[in-house]
What we know:
Layout: H1 2-20, E1 29-33, E2 38-43, E3 47-51, E4 58-65, E5 68-73, E6 76-84, E7 88-91, E8 94-98
Antiparallel strand pairs: 1-2, 1-8, 2-3, 3-4, 4-5, 5-6, 6-7, 7-8
Amino acid sequence: MKKIICLAVVLVMLLSVLTGCGASEKPEGEYYSADLGFSVIFEEDNKLTISYGIGDPMVFTYLISGDEITMTYAGETETVPFSFDGETVSIDGDVFIKVK
């Protein structure tokens, strides 16, 4: 019985540590795709900047809902598949890795 209680206490402590160190609910900062050769930067106020390294960056507004992201640019809106795990972002199947 003592082993079960001890195991339960250890599991509760481990879970509380892991949830305290989890990823934020939405991406923040810059993510880069070597395959595509450009970055996406998630900023405050639901702004998403796409920087190609040449020319002016494109600034979108975005809304994440479940496993989709809706992006709006110049009056055009598109909703595509989305996932986020803290270090990587996938937008419509393209994977971006956290830079900063």
